[in-house]
């Protein structure tokens, strides 16, 4: 009988090592042993995906590797997610988030990690993808009556688009009811303050905590 810590490490390793079939077996074993699904996701699968992201940043992994890691993570999620307790998603299950990479930028690995973790935390996510026209953030938020808009970029040349979206929200009389979160390697809290965003997060786990604070559902 494997310990919880051993299985959590196996889950993480399966994701990092792109073991998309083995992760299913390990995830099922984790559940069969009676361990909590939420910890399996956050301390196993997500931990492995974060490590893979670090390897990508260090140029040891390529985009194709990250995609294979994502496949493994999703396979594990398919096993674990049905076993989340009814309250694991908390009161966030009705909170809607529009997320995307701003126009001019096609880097979306960080955005995808944030989306996965926020989905796991119970938010309803509307992913616009990458290189998103700025008007689309506002129109989608209006269409879905979203609570939060999350914008990301890895390029300094596209950072200004985030401020443009905030101005468009103001023009549409939506700014008072839609929170704005931003992130990406060139982004800082100082920049978030300058453009009037509601918050900035440096990584995916922090993004989840920030989102919960902004909509008042942090435990």
UniProtKB/TrEMBL annotation:
GO terms for cellular component: cytosol. CDD domains: corrinoid_protein_B12-BD (cd02070). The keyword Metal-binding applies. The keyword Acetylation does not apply. Residues 94-219 form the B12-binding domain. InterPro entries: Cbl-bd_cap (IPR003759), Cobalamin-bd (IPR006158), Cobalamin-bd_sf (IPR036724), Met_Synthase/Corrinoid (IPR050554), Meth_synthase_dom (IPR036594). Residues 1-92 form the B12-binding N-terminal domain. One of its GO terms (molecular function) is metal ion binding. Coiled coil: none annotated. It holds the Pfam family B12-binding_2. One of its GO terms (biological process) is homocysteine metabolic process. Belongs to the methylamine corrinoid protein family. This is Corrinoid protein.
